[in-house]
From TrEMBL:
Gene3D superfamilies: Ubiquitin Conjugating Enzyme (3.10.110.10). It is a single-pass type IV membrane protein. PANTHER family: UBIQUITIN-CONJUGATING ENZYME E2. Residues 175-185, 249-258 have a biased composition (Low complexity). It is found in: Endoplasmic reticulum membrane. Residues 186-201, 216-226, 259-269 have a biased composition (Polar residues). This is Ubiquitin-conjugating enzyme E2 J1. GO terms for cellular component: Hrd1p ubiquitin ligase complex. SUPFAM superfamilies: UBC-like (SSF54495). One of its GO terms (molecular function) is ubiquitin conjugating enzyme activity. The gene is UBE2J1. Catalyzes the covalent attachment of ubiquitin to other proteins. Functions in the selective degradation of misfolded membrane proteins from the endoplasmic reticulum (ERAD) and is essential for cells to recover from ER stress. Plays a role in MAPKAPK2-dependent translational control of TNF-alpha synthesis. Also acts as a platform for perinuclear positioning of the endosomal system by mediating ubiquitination of SQSTM1 through interaction with the E3 ubiquitin-protein ligase RNF26. Plays a role in male fecundity through the interaction with the E3 ubiquitin-protein ligase RNF133. Residues 175-201, 216-269 are annotated as: Disordered. Residues 1-145 form the UBC core domain.
Amino acid sequence: MKEAAELKDPTDHYHAQPLEDNLFEWHFTVRGPPDSDFDGGIYHGRIVLPPEYPMKPPSIILLTANGRFEVGKKICLSISGHHPETWQPSWSIRTALLAIIGFMPTKGEGAIGSLDYTPEERRALAKKSQDFCCEACGISMKEALLPLTSESSSSQADKEAKELARQISFKAEVSSSKKSIAESSNTSGLNHSATLPEPTQDNIDRAFQDLATSAMSENQNNSATANHEHAQPVSSNTSMSPRQRRAHQQSQRRAPSSTDFNRVQQPRVNTSHTGSTVLIVLLTLALAALIFRRIYLANERIFEL
């Protein structure tokens, strides 16, 4: 209500008032910025305020064809509902009106609700906009704004609109940079997850099967090596004569020397235990990779929302 009282009287550049039956829907009229393709145009539109206003930004919808913003669609500006991260509660409807004027000469760059008409088409639409009359509020563009009589006042409003557009664009760039840095930091330790398959049950079973197969192969190799080492003395015994074999057996029955005793006391590597340890480590790494993958997907959904 305070803003409605402040904007009750139209100026030569903008005017806005809420509808009689809905305080959250305003109709506005702005004059096209001078020295641009929109010079001479008078454009009408709607501003829809959320219930949380001014803590959340409004939605802006143009009703007059202009060649810069689509008609009847919520446009994407740094001061509109598409970018709540750049909105400031200290801004007002007057700020939004000046931002629309300041953003009109800028490039659309593929934003939602943006158009890139040729300068000739925009000048033709600017001239045609003066004959527009809103059916909802009954305002005619020829009577919506005060005529341009004061060069100083018009120049001041135009400068204020341009400066506001620069400030809002700068805030949007800073916010976008912070978001990009946050996304990079969240994914810096999870780059390997991009090569992982989707964490479906089939992929999990296949991964566990591959790990088990590799572990079993390693156990078989270790067992073969150990059997080969134990088989060497037996093969050496086959080349002995019967007398030498009996002498060798008698020497083995004797008490072991200190060197043999130390050799016997040395611990042997348990190949089966080593294989189990390798399997456990590989399974733990696979589970950790899947958990990181789910965290990464959850972060992507949060950023999209």
